[in-house]
């Protein structure tokens, strides 16, 4: 092995340790008793932290709330972003590029800027302390990025593909669902990935809109930090919070890989 190859291998190893090290430590701590519990001593290896999670209605509810609003958010985002991306890709109208730019500009707006007006609006609509309220708010930030991603994938499909389907007698909805969606599946996978990541880890609106109920997993973890924090329980909750993300990446890994390649 050359010196250059050795340095590259050492750099890769250092990066792997830097990334995987904290995860391994979290898993080890989640299996370690960090506060006294009946039948176990501090420092013992045990599943008591995971048992305590499923024995707590609040923690179990937070997992369900997060899965509910993330799923609703991704579905609503795709329902809106797919037709909008198709329209921006296939049709030309006055100010179309400006609309596209405004969408992206809105996406980079700090969430805290909109927190007060959204709180007042949702208080009047009765959407506070509800996972669906958080899902709607996240759509405001996920729809622009989803449109941007999907528009580029749709633009990569030749217009002749649409025209051939229409000449064969397919309606626009039938063509869109039966022909176009399978072709841009990698783009849909990439859009789902980014929407999921943003919604799953977002804390600003989750904190503001769920003061008494409907708390997601991020707020449940935050509430575990008290005067005497059970670090093992916190780490167990964190490890469980990683499971849906890892599962999503596993199921759409091929689409994500192809999507990033096509995007490049």
From TrEMBL:
SUPFAM superfamilies: MetI-like
PROSITE patterns: ABC_TM1
Membrane topology: Multi-pass membrane protein
GO CC terms of this entry: plasma membrane
The family this protein is said to belong to: Belongs to the binding-protein-dependent transport system permease family.
Source organism of the structure: Pseudosulfitobacter pseudonitzschiae
Biological processes, Gene Ontology terms: transmembrane transport
Signal peptide (UniProt feature, chain positions): none
Keyword Transmembrane listed: yes
Name assigned to this protein: ABC transporter permease
Localization, UniProt: Cell membrane
InterPro entries xrefs: BP-dep_ABC_trans_perm (IPR050901), MetI-like (IPR000515), MetI-like_sf (IPR035906)
ABC transmembrane type-1 domain: residues covered: 63-252
Transmembrane segments: 67-88, 100-122, 134-154, 175-201, 231-252
Pfam families noted in UniProt: BPD_transp_1
Keywords per UniProt: Cell membrane, Membrane, Transmembrane, Transmembrane helix, Transport
Major subcellular location class: membrane
